[in-house]
Design a protein that fits this description.
Layout lengths: L2 H31 L8 H5 L3 H11 L7 H26 L4 H12 L2 H8 L3 H21 L3 H17 L1 H4 L2 H10 L2 H5 L1 H40 L8 H15 L3 H7 L9 H21 L7 H16 L4 H20 L5 H14 L1
Length: 358
């Protein structure tokens, strides 16, 4: 009997239960709050939140009797439930016990910042997904480093463009990372050019589609906005302090796992993807402090949770690291609850989630 066959029945039940539980939990929290905050407006779309706006726009095409915001929260909750179920499967595959994998998924699902994102801040969902895909793509290139790995990362790069200006700046460095990871590309200029073109081709196709959809004038306006997002406009001191506190208390503890992972080498040791997962929230924080991107104060934290979870889904960790990851995720949740007053929307969402649990 194979290992997969041994766990098939129990895993299938646990996956279905986990996905349904998160769906019901977030839906109940959304109903209690009334979901009065608009998800993504046309103005936000013009600011670069193209993917989030497109999803909300598609949902809004149907005259739902419950309102677009409630339906958007249901879609977000269902999607996150399915992703958490996939994460549970991957943790089991990476030698986690079913109990510890389920506890990790539960702590992630009940993290207050994740709840706030699913119920209110739908714009951050695409950023979470993009950060997770970045880590997965880097991990595969780090492990294999072949043409297929480079193409896989290239398919994720358009999401960075559609998510908005903050992550769009990472497209070129990530594409170059994938190319330089290939030994043939480092030695042959023609191979380098071919692999670079293959990596950025999906992004170029998306840009072509945007040009056709928006027209020349609209496309140039969007391009000016992306470029203008990197003009130095420091964030005000109060908001800066709030952002730094949230990020440090919810992200920095995970640096313990990453730090010790760098010094425990084995045949599956892949440090670059771990460092990328840890660097992404600080990149977002630094950009908000310097350029005032108008992102949610919880975005760097939830982006890191997505990136860290993606890293755990492909990393084979020792039992000590697994236990530390679960404990630190619990600490991050506690810190997130303590910052429940960071925004009115988060306060409402957390109170609703607490009343749902009780």
């Amino acid at each position: 009997m194979t290992r997969d066959t041994m766990y098939f029945g129990s895993r299938s039940v646990a996956v279905a239960t986990l996905s349904a539980a998160l769906f019901v939990f977030l839906l109940a929290a959304g109903i209690r709050t009334g979901l009065g905050t608009p998800s993504v407006s046309w103005a936000e779309a013009s600011e670069g939140a193209l993917l989030a706006h497109a999803i909300v726009r598609i949902v809004g095409l149907v005259p739902w009797p419950w309102g677009v915001n409630l339906v958007s929260a249901v879609v977000a909750a269902l999607g996150m439930g399915m992703l958490l179920a996939w994460l549970f499967e991957r943790l089991i595959y990476n030698n986690w016990s079913p109990q510890m994998a389920l506890l990790f998924a539960f702590l992630l699902a009940t993290n207050p910042m994740v709840i706030q994102t699913a119920v209110f801040d739908h714009r951050s969902l695409s950023t979470m997904l993009a950060c997770a895909l970045i880590v997965l793509g880097v991990r595969r290139i780090e492990s294999v480093g072949d043409v297929q790995a480079n193409l896989s990362l290239g398919l994720a790069l358009p999401l960075l463009l559609l998510d908005g200006p903050p992550l769009a700046l990472l497209i070129v460095p990530l594409a170059l990372f994938g190319v330089f990871a290939d030994s043939a590309a480092r030695k042959d200029v023609r191979a380098f050019a071919a692999m670079l073109l293959a990596a950025i081709m999906p992004t170029l196709l998306v840009l072509t589609g945007l040009l056709g959809a928006l027209g020349v004038t609209g496309f140039l306006d969007l391009a000016r906005h992306y470029v203008g997002s990197y003009v130095f406009r420091p964030l005000d001191p109060v908001a800066s302090g709030q952002l730094v506190n949230v990020v440090l208390w919810t992200v920095l503890p995970f640096g313990i796992v990453t730090f010790f992972y760098l010094f425990v080498r084995d045949r599956r040791w892949q440090p670059v993807s771990a460092l990328v997962a840890l660097a992404l929230p600080f990149y977002l924080m630094a950009g908000e402090l310097a350029f005032s991107w108008n992102i949610a104060p919880t975005l760097p934290s939830v982006a890191f949770l997505a990136a860290f979870a993606a890293w755990l889904s492909v990393a084979r960790l020792r039992p000590t690291f697994r236990l530390a990851s679960v404990a630190l995720l619990g600490l991050s949740s506690v810190a997130g609850w303590s910052f429940s007053g960071s925004s009115p929307e988060m306060q409402i969402a957390l109170e609703a989630a607490l009343s749902t649990l009780l």
